[in-house]
């Protein structure tokens, strides 16, 4: 399996055969991750872990999504993904998760940069979106660090664990990303 260095961590694909490792990662961060996203509610046992990873293997095969894990010292601590990818429209929605021990260290920002570079430069994606609950300050901070602009707020859009959240939509367009990358 290939991996891409991220300083003191690495980024690599997550496959169905990583189901035990993925479940362990979700278990370590279940409440932290689940504050704003439904991933921990979907991945509750080995079968659901394998099914989730298989759904992304199927998306990768059909070129409609991607899932990559972030590992530190060989341990899966989180990941980044393209929840959706529409090559015809040139639009993708990126996302992430991270267990608490790995948060606040810039890992998601570094990993998302790699994924966005790939999507724009290799797959021809024109617009990458980042959606986050308005209360999810860490995720919104990632969007800002990635140079994204806030497109707007979908009021009370997300129902999560019986609570309605406003959902912020952030995005970066290929020409903006390329100009930003050239300036760095």
TrEMBL record:
This is RimJ/RimL family protein N-acetyltransferase. It comes from the Bacteria. InterPro entries: Acyl_CoA_acyltransferase (IPR016181), GNAT_dom (IPR000182), Ribosomal_N-acetyltransferase (IPR051908). PANTHER family: ACETYLTRANSFERASE, RIBOSOMAL-PROTEIN-SERINE ACETYLTRANSFERASE. Residues 9-168 form the N-acetyltransferase domain. It holds the Pfam family Acetyltransf_3. Signal peptide: none annotated.
